[in-house]
Amino acid sequence: MINSLFDKKDGRRKWFRSDDRFNSLYPSSIQELAKRHWTPLRMAKKAAGFLADGTAGQRILDIGSGVGKFCLVAAYYFPKVYWYGIEQRKQLTTYADAAKNYLQLENAFFNHGNFTQLNFKNFDHFYFFNSFYENLDDSDKIDDSIAYSEELYIYYNRYLSLQLEMRPTGTKIATLHSYGEVIPSCYKEVGSEFTDELKFWIKAE
Ligand SMILES: C[S@@+](CC[C@H](N)C(=O)[O-])C[C@H]1O[C@@H](n2cnc3c(N)ncnc32)[C@H](O)[C@@H]1O
């Protein structure tokens, strides 16, 4: 799976130079999914920069963390922040952990489970790459290992929206390819990048 040791001079930096290089940390079946399902490096870096405001020890959750690409990029560029991922597919969490161990990033953590099992009070800010979209008929699926349904799409969106609504003023969310349907109205859009594909939100008073 993982194909070479750290460069002596460069440390782990080389893995963050391009998406192709980073994606080569994973098997080819996972690399093939990258374009559609894993956050591109420069978007991950930009989103992480918005969420990490410089306070050491912040805890940030990626809701549906896949093979960990967002958290690992964020952990590399923002080492004082703790980046957490929750992922419903066990195999993807295993790949995330393997890449984390290889990159020796001690501030990224991956858990296998459904995001509905988490206590949102344990996190300060959130990242969301439209994770529930695969429940809709016309979407590209990662695999056929789980059941999909429109009911689940609606349920997850409502559940997440409610959790976000209960977070304190100042809570931040970065969304990718998600056009605000899950964001409660108490959050204000405060910016966007990449022709609106990546959006930034903060909970107002
Ligand atoms: C579009 S991928 C994004 C992966 C990662 N956040 C990234 O940006 O590289 C969405 C992921 O969310 C996961 N997911 C979807 N619904 C979930 C749920 N209810 N609980 C946990 N994970 C979920 C999927 O299995 C998939 O791996």
First-residue to last-residue Cα separation: 48 Å
User: How would the global form be characterised?
Assistant: globular
**What is the average per-residue confidence, as pLDDT, rounded to a whole number?**
93
CATH fourth-tier homologous superfamily: Vaccinia Virus protein VP39
Q: What is the string of SSEs from the N terminus onward?
A: HHHHEHEHEEHEEE
Beta strand %: 15-25%
The CATH C-level class name: Alpha Beta
User: Which blocks of ≥5 consecutive residues have pLDDT under 50?
Assistant: none
What ligands are attached or bound here? S-adenosylmethionine
CATH topology annotation: Rossmann fold
Main sheet specs: 7 strands, mixed
Number of strands: 7
Helix content: 25-40%
Query: Could you say how many structural domains there are in total?
Result: 1
The secondary structure category is alpha/beta
How many helix segments? 7
Radius of gyration: 16 Å
Can you tell me the CATH architecture? 3-Layer(aba) Sandwich
Task: List the strand order in the largest sheet.
Answer: 3-2-1-4-5-7-6
Tell me about this structure.
By secondary structure, the chain is an alpha/beta fold. The protein has a single domain (13-203), classed as Rossmann fold (3-Layer(aba) Sandwich), CATH 3.40.50. The chain has seven helices and seven strands; from the N terminus they run ααααβαβαββαβββ. The protein has helices at residues 19-23, 28-31, 34-37, 41-51, 69-77, 90-103, 150-165; strands spanning 59-63, 82-87, 108-112, 125-128, 172-176, 187-193, 198-203. Strands 3-2-1-4-5-7-6 form a seven-stranded mixed β-sheet, with helices on one face. Strand 6 (187-193) and strand 7 (198-203) form a beta hairpin. Helix 4 (41-51) crosses helix 5 (69-77). The protein is globular, with a radius of gyration of 16 Å. The N and C termini lie far apart (48 Å). Bound molecules: S-adenosylmethionine (SAM). S-adenosylmethionine binds next to helix 5 and strand 2.
